[in-house]
Amino acid sequence: MDTPNFDIAAIALKFQITGGISEVRKYGTGHINDTFLLKNSNAADPDYLLQRINHQVFKDVLGLMENIARVTAHLQSKLTPGTNQKLLQLIDTKDGGCFYRDGDNNYWRLYFFIPGSRSYDVAETTRQAYEAGMAFGRFQSTLSDMDPALLSETIVDFHNIQKRLKDFHEAVQVNKASRVSAVSAEIDIITRHEQAMSIINEWGQAGLLPKRITHNDTKLNNVLFDADDNAICVIDLDTVMTGYVAYDFGDAIRTITNTAAEDEPDLEKIQVNTDLFKAYTEGYLKTAGSFLTEKEVESLSWGMLLLPYMQGVRFLTDYLQGDTYFKIEYPDHNLIRAKAQFSLFTKLYEQSPQLRQIITETVAAYKDILQE
Ligand code: ADP
Ligand code: GN1
Ligand code: MG
Description:
Blueprint: H1 8-12, E1 21-26, E2 34-40, E3 48-53, H2 61-77, E4 90-91, E5 100-101, E6 107-112, H3 126-142, H4 161-174, H5 184-193, H6 199-205, E7 212-214, E8 223-225, E9 231-234, E10 241-243, H7 245-256, H8 274-288, H9 294-320, H10 333-350, H11 352-365
Antiparallel strand pairs: 1-2, 2-3, 3-6, 4-6, 5-6, 7-10, 8-9
Helix pairs in contact: 3-7, 3-8, 4-9, 7-8, 7-9, 8-11, 9-10, 9-11
The chain binds adenosine-5'-diphosphate, 2-acetamido-2-deoxy-1-O-phosphono-alpha-D-glucopyranose and magnesium ion (MG).
């Protein structure tokens, strides 16, 4: 990763911090924002997590930050008194705003660094998968009584596969980076499954699935864990807005059940770990089951196919457009990512009868929790 060339300590001073900054480290593996860990020079004062918000991706930074402030306030209001639960918490600027815009048009926000926390890019144990399921289910259920009208749509049509496919077809047509001839196998996979992958959209449009407040970026590394692998809380709230629960389930399955990294070039290494699938499903249904409708439960297995497919479409579209959206580390990174996603999609598809059976069995075991 590049070493930061911003005056991070000076930026931190724009916020209501205590103590001082003794060390700045690039942090995390996100594809959109830039994240820095700020160590405090005074041991009694907190460490901080500073982020440069990608405003090419998030055009309405104020709307985005107001969403995060509202969501974190709602989550805060639901904490059980007397417990030591930790949550993502923003720090205001000295002017009382929730972000700072510097002279070069960079947008910055500051959080408390949650002490003793860590995240994983690839799941190592069923405990992590189960805890992540509990965390995302609890997140949805805690927000289920929040008024969705309070939230701006930070990226319009974010998980609308129809829109993603339209962008993809346009990218093929325009062929801006002259890469279309190299991706015929991927184009073929996308085209073959277009129809089947529209089912969640169709159910939604037919009024069969409720729109809820969802996270929309339920990667495993958006859960913080403590040293004993208990999930502390869900982070990365940039895309919290209305959506279908199947999107969150699918994106979590995409990153949690894959035995390899999201950008693994060796497709043989990409396998679906069914134990991790079962553990995530159990954790999720345990905390979200009480509010899900029967149709939503049925939609989960479609979400698990849709999200890897959609992620492949998005990586490939970016590749065809010349890598303008996702950060890349080498020239063909988006192509390698897309291939990995389609490989995972194909394996999930082949194993879907078995995976559906796991959902059905979990539902049966948890029938007391689920809605009548
Ligand atoms: P991105 O949008 O780039 O994915 P995230 O908000 O997910 O950015 O942050 C990147 C990483 O930084 C996370 O995966 C997590 O490891 C860490 N992180 C984010 N916020 C906090 C926090 N408040 N405390 C501790 N670690 C955090
Ligand atoms: C991006 O910022 P990060 O890395 O958590 C992307 C997600 C993708 C993900 C793929 C705003 O998430 O939608 O699923 O990369 N975020 C945005 O790893 O586009
Ligand atoms: Mg993240």
